[in-house]
Every structure is written in C-alpha cells, then in structure tokens.
Amino acid sequence: MDRRDQTTHFGFRDVSVGDKQTLVNDVFRSVASRYDLMNDLMSAGLHRLWKGIMINALNPPRTDTRFALLDVAGGTGDVAFRAAEAAGAGLRATVCDINSDMLAVGRARAAARHLDARVSFVEGNAEALAFPDRHFDGYTIAFGIRNVPRIDLALNEAFRVLKHGGRFLCLEFSTVDVPGLDRIYDLFSFRVIPPLGRVVSGDAESYRYLVESIRKFPRPGAFAEMIRAAGFSRVSWQSLSGGIVALHSGWRL
Ligand SMILES: C[S@@+](CC[C@H](N)C(=O)[O-])C[C@H]1O[C@@H](n2cnc3c(N)ncnc32)[C@H](O)[C@@H]1O
Fold first, then answer.
1. Where is average pLDDT lowest: 103-117, 161-175, 208-222?
2. What gap in Å lies between CA 112 and CA 106, rounded to an integer?
3. How far apart, in whole angstroms, are the C-alpha atoms of residue 177 and residue 19?
4. pLDDT digit string (tens) for 131-155?
5. Per-residue three-class SS string for 107-167
6. pTM for this prediction
7. Closest to 197 measured CA to CA, from 51, 76, 24, 37
8. Ligand 1 pocket residues where CB is under 6 Å
9. Residue 15 and residue 25: Cα distance in Å, rounded?
10. Which of 123, 170, 218, 252 is 20 to 30 A distant from 229 in Cα terms?
C-alpha cells in the first residue's frame, strides 16, 4: 500500500498518514512561539512535575560519566534542559524534532540558559532517525508520540538507536478513569483549552486537535504491548495524576 493511502487519525478525523504529518506540522508551526506558555496554562504547571518524574526515572549519572540522551519530538527543549540540569557534566542531549519553528525556540532557550554546549538541536523525523544503531544511552519522548503518524515505526527506531542496556521513556497523555475527574477533565479539555488557545496564540483549532488526539491515543496496556512489539524488555508504565498522563518505560536488553 502506498504511504499516503494508509489512514490514521488527526484528532477525531480520519486522514492519510502523509496528511497527518503535514497537519501536525502546521499545528506546531502555529503555536511554537507561545508553546511553553500554553503548556503551563493548560496543565496548571503540572507538565513540570510530570517531566521531573520522567527525569528521575531516567536517572542520568550525576558525575562526568558520558551519557548520551536522545529526546525525540523534543520541541523547545524542555526535557533535555531538565536532564542536563539534573545530570553531571557528562550528559549530552540531542533534541530531535520535525518542526524547525519549535527547534528555533529551543535553540534560543538553550543559549539563554547557557546549555548550548550540552544540548544540541537536530531536525528529524521520529519514524526515520538519522542516527547510527546503538548510539544512545537514553531515549525520551514527552507528549510527542501521539503526534507521530506511524507510532510502530517510531518505536522500532527508538529500539534501533539505543545501546544494549539503554532506557526508553515515554510520557504521554492517557485515559482518565477516576469517576468525577473524567467529566471535569473532559469539560476542561473541550470547553476551556481551545478558547484559551485562541486567546494566547490566536489559534483554537490547533488546541482542539491536541485534545482530540489525546482521546485517540491507545490505552496504557495497549501502548505497552506496542513497546514490547518493538523489542523492548521489562516494559512497565505508571499512571500519573489520575490517569491524565502515563509514563511508559522499556529497556533494550
Ligand atoms: C506537544 S509537543 C512536545 C514538545 C516537548 N517534548 C515537550 O514535552 O514540551 C510535540 C512535538 O512533536 C513534534 N513532532 C510531531 N511529529 C513528529 C515526528 N514525526 N518526528 C519528530 N517530531 C515530531 C512536534 O513538532 C512537536 O514539537
């Protein structure tokens, strides 16, 4: 089947794989300059806590031992900066993202934080990484994988570029199963976030896509199965904040 004939979801719409990536790229081009502010507003700052939990799980060396981290769909660099700040001098982080506008914001932030020697930014597609096999000690992806049209290809690539003993960590919005919280969360997602997006970044539609795409993402158990299918071992996941987010983990052993 031709790549463009395969169908997937763009929020609640069925679209071809090729069209999804184009639409996703438009979303992040549109929101890049206000992305970090919107992240804080939409999550009431909780994304900082969730990313902190992911970095704790990654547990990079606090010494000058070399540790190569690849942060895919890393956007404006948030996860890489947190890793660099938590780790010792040996950490080198590569932020890989398909969107040059998000990367441009990230480069400016890295320079402002004097982290540009330890954090580099590379344009690339999670489905076809331009890195050698067994190159990285850690692979992180935060709120990125649901935007990738072919998640199975991205997981295969994560496995390929990790060294033996390397760790895969994925933070992604998940399924709220707590009675009561689910209704509040739905109301907030569909009634508050798109209008907030309109006020902050002049773009309600992009934020409508973001909340719809969360509802289309596989449940944690199903996603864990996909991670196993890519070859990872000791796959596990933990639910955070009542299921708003899940942190999945796997090892290349
Ligand atoms: C919601 S942002 C997450 C940014 C960052 N990880 C964070 O947590 O703040 C999603 C990112 O995924 C990127 N993205 C979407 N499709 C991608 C792909 N196929 N390959 C790499 N990055 C992709 C977008 O450009 C965007 O920067």
1. 208-222
2. 10
3. 32
4. 999 999 999 999 999 999 999 999 9
5. HHHHHHCCCCCCEEEEECECCECCCCCCCEEEEEEECCHHHCCCHHHHHHHHHHHEEEEEE
6. 0.95
7. 37
8. 21, 24, 28, 39, 72-75, 78-79, 97-99, 102, 125-127, 142-144, 147-148
9. 14
10. 123
Contact predicate 4/209, CB 8 Å = no
Stated length of the chain: 253
| SS3 state of residue 211 | helix
Task: Report which secondary-structure segment, H or E, holds 8.
Answer: strand 7-10
Nearest atom, ligand 1, residue 75 CA: 27
Task: Give 92: exposed, middle or buried? Use CB within 10 Å, 0-12, 13-18, 19+.
Answer: buried
Query: What tokens does 60 get?
Result: 């990079």
Give the type of residue at 74: G
Express each pLDDT in 25-67 by its tens digit: 998 998 899 888 888 988 889 999 999 999 999 999 999 999 9
CA distance 121 to 96: 6
Tokens 């890049």 found at:
32
Cα–ligand 1 centroid distance for 68 (angstroms): 20
Q: How many CA atoms lie within 13 A of 102 on its CB side?
A: 26
**What mean pLDDT do residues 90-103 have?**
98
Three-state DSSP at 248 gives strand
